[in-house]
Amino acid sequence: MSEIRSQDIEIRTSGNARSAVKRVAIVEAATTLFLRDGYLATSMDEIAGLAVVSKQTVYSQFGDKENLFRDVVTAVVDEAATPVFAEVSILPDGGNLESDLRDLASRLLARVIQPRLLQLRRLVISEAGRFPELGRLFYERGPGRTIGALADAFERLAASGVLRIDDPQLAAEHFNWLVMSIPINRVMLCGEDALPRGADLNRYAQAGVGAFLAAYASR
Amino acid sequence: MSEIRSQDIEIRTSGNARSAVKRVAIVEAATTLFLRDGYLATSMDEIAGLAVVSKQTVYSQFGDKENLFRDVVTAVVDEAATPVFAEVSILPDGGNLESDLRDLASRLLARVIQPRLLQLRRLVISEAGRFPELGRLFYERGPGRTIGALADAFERLAASGVLRIDDPQLAAEHFNWLVMSIPINRVMLCGEDALPRGADLNRYAQAGVGAFLAAYASR
Questions:
Q1: What is the mean pLDDT of residues B1-5?
Q2: What value, to the nearest 5°, has the Cα angle with vertex B135 and ends B134 and B139?
Q3: Residue B201 and residue A3: Cα distance in Å, rounded?
Q4: Cα separation, B105 vs B111, whole angstroms
Q5: d(C-alpha B81, C-alpha A54), whole Å
Q6: Do B214 and A214 touch (CB under 8 A)?
Q7: Is B50 buried (19+), middle (13-18) or exposed (0-12) by CB count in 10 A?
C-alpha cells in the first residue's frame, strides 16, 4: 500500500513539474509573440507552436488569451520590479543620503529601461482601452510598488530628519518621475532608438536626484 | 478678356475653398476613426465615407494613409499646443513668480488632459514601432515645443535672478514632468477612467510647482 502511494506521489509530482515547465514555456512564447506582433495579431495557435505544446494545453493551463496576457504582464513586470523593490527597501537610514539616492536612481533607471519592459509598457498602453485592468496590474506591480517602497523609505528618512516631507507618497512619485520621465517619455513617443544611452541616460537620473534633494532635503 | 480672367479666378478660388473644406472634413473623419478604431483597423474607404467625399479625393489630397495620419497628429497636437505655447511665452518676468507658475501649471495640465490628445498620445505610442517619425512629430510639436518655451522663460527668469538654474532645458523638462507625469502616466497605463478629476488633478499640478520652486527658486 505504502509503496503504491509513494509511486502515486512520484507520478503526480513529475506531472506537476512537467506542467510547470510547460506553463513557463507558454508564458515565454506568449511574451515573445505579444511583444513582437501585438496582442490581437497573436493567436493561441502560434503561442502553442512556439512553446511546442498543444493548443489544448494552452487553454487548459490559462483558460483564454486575456488570462495569458495577465500572466505575461505579471512575469515581465515582476522580473524588473522585484529587484527594484528590494533595492529601495534596503535604502539605509543613515550614511550619505545623496550618494545612496544617486546609486539607487541609476539602478532603478537601468532596470526600467530594459527593452522587454519598455515594449510591454507600450503594449499595455496601446491595449488600455480594451484591457484597463491589465494596465492597472502593470501599474500596481511596477511603478506603484516602487513608489510605495520609496514612500516608506522617505517617511523613515523624514522621521530621522534628513528629508523634509509632508506627503511621502507624493514625494515618492516626484522622485520616481524626476528620475524616469524624460527617457521613458522619449522612448514611448519616439521609439526605442530615441533612448538616451550610457552617460546621457545617467545624467537624467542624476539631475532628477539633484532636483529632488534641492526640493526635499532638510537644510 | 479681363472679365474672363476674373471669372477664372473666382472659379479657382471657390475650387480652392471647396478643396480646403474637404481637407478639413477628411482630417476630422480620420481623427475620429483612428482614435476610435486604431490606425490599422481604419480604411481609407471608411474615412472617405465619414467625410462624405470620394476615396479618390482622399488619395489626391493626402497621397496615402500614413500622410493622413501625419496631418491628424499635426492638427490634434497643434490645437492643444499652440495656446500652451502662447501661455508659456507670455509668462511675465516680474510680478509674483509663484502664483504665475501655479496658474500656468493648472492651464497646461487642463489642456494636456483633453480626451482627444490623450487618445492620440496612446495611438502614437502604440504605433511608435511602425511610425517612429509620427511619435517624433507628436513630441516636437507638443511637449518638445512647450519645454522649449519653458526653457526660454526660465532662462530669462534666471537672468533676472528669481530662479537659480544652470541648465534651462533640463529645468523646463523637470517643470513639465513634475506637473504632468502623475496624471498622464496613470491615464496611459490604467485608461481614461483613471484620470484624476478637478481638485485632485490640480493638486498634482500645484505639488509639482511646489517641488519645482523648492528646487529652483533663488533663496
A1: 50
A2: 115
A3: 67
A4: 10
A5: 51
A6: yes
A7: middle
pLDDT above 60: residue A7: no
Closest residue in A to B35 (Cα–Cα) = A129
CA distances for A171 relative to A103, A112, A152, angstroms: 18, 19, 11
Query: How large a percentage of chain B has pLDDT more than 90?
Result: 77
Q: Which residue has the higher pLDDT, B4 or B15?
A: B15
Q: What is the ipTM of this complex?
A: 0.88
Q: A188 vs B128: CB contact, 8 Å cut-off?
A: yes
Residues 6+ apart with CB under 8 A from B78: B141
User: Global pTM?
Assistant: 0.89
Q: Do B181 and A186 make contact, defined as CB atoms within 8 angstroms?
A: no
CA pair distance B177, B114, nearest whole angstrom: 17
What is the band of A1 on the pLDDT scale with cuts at 50, 70, 90?
A: very low
Task: Kindly write down the DSSP assignment for every residue of A123-189, as one continuous string.
Answer: HHHHTTTT-HHHHHHHHHHTHHHHHHHHHHHHHHHHHTTSB--S-HHHHHHHHHHHHHHHHHHHHHH
Residue range A47-61, pLDDT digits in tens: 999 999 999 999 999
Q: How many CB atoms lie within 10 A of CB B24?
A: 11
Give the pLDDT band (50/70/90) at residue A11.
low
Residue of chain B minimizing CA distance to A137: B190
Task: Tell me the per-residue pLDDT of B150-192, one tens digit each, with 9 for 90 and over.
Answer: 999 999 999 999 999 999 999 999 999 999 999 999 999 999 8
The four Cα atoms B117, B84, A174, B127 give a dihedral, to 10 degrees, of 30
Rounded Cα gap, residues B23 and B53, in angstroms? 10
Is B167's CB within 8 Å of A139's CB? no
Q: Quote the cell numbers at residue B15.
A: 475650387
The alpha carbon of residue A174 is apart from the nearest alpha carbon of chain B, in Å, by 6
Q: Who contacts A6 (Cβ-Cβ below 8 Å, separation ≥6)?
A: none
Enumerate the β-bridge partners of residue A145: none
Smallest CA–CA distance, residue A88 to chain B, in Å, is 20
Q: CA-CA distance, A187 to A122, in Å (whole number)?
A: 9
